[in-house]
């Protein structure tokens, strides 16, 4: 084992001990991770997708939401990152492109250890800098179908486009099958009490799509000295979910965001 991986492995081990990994072994629970991986580039400026994979592997998730994912882009060595991480972790990938970029495509992905019954790409109102999409999949935990939605919203300081994207996405989820409970997560680029996040809790939404933010209750960005909480998990219908644990993983190097982990019981 290369010596340069030892600090990372020690850090992951300590972080996962704090997360009580046994909770993920509960057959009734669903462990979901959300992680903006910055196409595998860490705070040291190094492209290292294996380092990203090691962080994710240690978290033993059922479903992983990834933001800033490259598909065969020049800057990341032409690798289909969602497929590569899925193969490395023994999970099935689904990818939602934002745009063509650098010889390939750039977007977000969901990896699932559970069977994926369906997937849907939701086109969001475009930002000034780049278009945006969300990705919704339906997985099956035992006999229970669960919808999992991943989003990465606009990052500009002016929240006009970000709020428009949040409103559009919440309305799109409201139009989906009301009998399937939903876990929604991702990099929303806004604070817990912002109008962006609160758009998913609007009173005018139908009961099955009125979300409740469940955490994490800690900072996620930047990863080396976190000072902002911009990565979130929400669930709907809020009264059908029990939250066992929602935490920020103490991983300061593999990306500019820290991963977040939720153990849920639908």
From TrEMBL:
Keyword entries, A-Z: Endonuclease, Exonuclease, Hydrolase, Nuclease, Signal
Signal peptide: 1-18
UniProt-listed InterPro entries: Endo/exonu/phosph_ase_sf (IPR036691), Endo/exonuclease/phosphatase (IPR005135), GPI-anchor_lipid_remodeler (IPR051916)
GO (cellular component) term, any one: membrane
GO biological process: GPI anchor biosynthetic process
UniProt domain Endonuclease/exonuclease/phosphatase: residue ranges: 33-257
GO molecular function, one term: endonuclease activity
PANTHER family in the cross-refs: CALCOFLUOR WHITE HYPERSENSITIVE PROTEIN PRECURSOR, ENDONUCLEASE_EXONUCLEASE_PHOSPHATASE DOMAIN-CONTAINING PROTEIN
Protein name (record): Endonuclease/Exonuclease/phosphatase family protein
